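Kindly inspect what follows.
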Amino acid sequence: MPTGLETRPSEVLSVALAGAVALGTAAAWLAALSWRRGSVLALLCGVVGIASAVLAGRAAWLGRDATDAFAGSLAAITIGTVLLVLGQAIQRLLDQDPDKSV
């Protein structure tokens, strides 16, 4: 059974490429924000998210199944965002002065 571009509707390709661009943009935003704030693990997740989004776009362009690459990119972005938020919350707690009344 052929799986090339000629067997898929053009809407599927457009939606897959739009999803890859959206995930790539979100991962790039995460990487840039992590770089600025100094969060190494979130930066690593952002870079992995960018790579997975590129692989998903390439797989979609070639007419292959890109579900795993999309899921990997979304997971990397989600984990990186959680790590960034938790790191910032812990940093705010460490920056506070200790309570002297105790």
